[in-house]
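Ligand-bound model needed. adenosine-5'-diphosphate.
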Amino acid sequence: TTLVELLQVTAAAANEALNVEDALQICLGRISAHTGWPLGHAYMLANDGSETLVSSGIWHCDTPERFARFQAVTSETPLPVGIGLPGRVLASGEAMWVLDLDAESDHSRAGAAAAEGFRAAFGFPVTIGREVVAVLEFFAAETQAPNRALLNVMANIGAQLGRVIERKRAEENLREAKDAAENASRSKSSFLANMSHELRTPLNAIIGFTRLIMRRAKDVLPIKQFENLEKILLSSEHLLSLINTILDLAEVEAGRMEVKTSEFSLESTLDLCLRTVEPLVKSEYVRLVKDFEGLPETISTDQEKLRQILINLLSNAIKFTETGSVTLRARAVGDRIALAVIDTGIGIPSGALTLIFEEFQQVDNSASRTHSGTGLGLAITRRLVTRMGGHVEATSRLGTGSTFTVALPLDVAEAGRERPPGFAGRRVLIVASSPFQAPYLARRLTRSGASARVVPDLEAGLAALPGA
Ligand code: ADP
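Prediction:
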């Protein structure tokens, strides 16, 4: 190969290599093949920050085992900057040639090389910018005059390899960072899930015993103390609901949430949600409106999650509406149900419309805000909706009101299944001898609009084609 070809081939191969080791291995092999020098090796800069080269363990050897002793010495000989050929390449950042290894008596490794019968060596740096990150070295038995052209090409290959190493390292760092982040997020969710679970147990005891005292000692307790107990109960229940919310979120995050599908009456479930939130309407100026039209009898999805979604949206709407109405609208649209919670409340600034679906995000994050809440309701709502194969979005005008729309498949299982493409009006020829599979496939295709014909073998298939 010519030098230019060598350069092109090594650059291309190094670029396609899966990792740094492969790229180095490929280059060593190509260069050895080109020069006819039997042994090549890569020294890498130690990653402890010291200016020392350590063997990468990556070799190209034209006859395996032949130089085993020298390889062993090399693997045990780190080279500080300036020592040996690789150390000098590291110091100067330039490709170098050694004509007479015998003269290299400054360290033991040169002696081992000479003992293998090597007379000459050359080495070149792999560079990222100005920094040398590795040194590739090659050995030959005959003394050869320095070859300038070859050294120039090596410098070039070194720069190319440097770029590959830089890119691969960046990729590796990214992958590690991503894995670490995912791990951390999983542990966080798992911690939250366990922790909230642990918090609920003592809290339930507090609630239970407070109720017990209130029931048993109602007649003997001074009225003031009874009222205090009521406050304990109220606060505990509030705390419990907060913990439950966090637990929900953590369970969704930790991937512990399953969709439990059942078929149930849609309208009565929606009615139930409205009745559940009715007590939350504190103002006589707010009406709760039901607007259902053309609904299917039943829906096949996770009933508990549907309830949770609607109660979240309805209670938000009620919380942020002082006058006017909160409407639950439901329509069937194709194989989906479109639900909307429409309020005439304070509205949401357009910049916050997507933000509010993130955890702990509230339009008013200030301590002095007038509305209570954790900022978790919508985050949970969105996760639930997504798990049920639907999507949720919000539109709003400040001061006029907000609309939260949820679209859900009428049949979760059906929506999850892969649907065959439309085959209406198409003719399909199935060549298969299987007694069950082929007719089954034909039936499915027929159901999606195709006319299907089954033939038992290729010959019959070919025969059927001209008439098709
Ligand atoms: P929380 O209600 O507990 O604060 P959410 O996640 O349910 O948490 O809501 C996040 C924020 O989105 C609320 O704090 C509020 O600022 C805004 N928001 C949600 N629903 C409405 C609504 N119907 N009208 C106005 N603002 C809303």
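Residues 316-317, 320, 343, 345-346, 348, 356, 362-364, 373-379, 402 surround adenosine-5'-diphosphate (CB under 6 Å).
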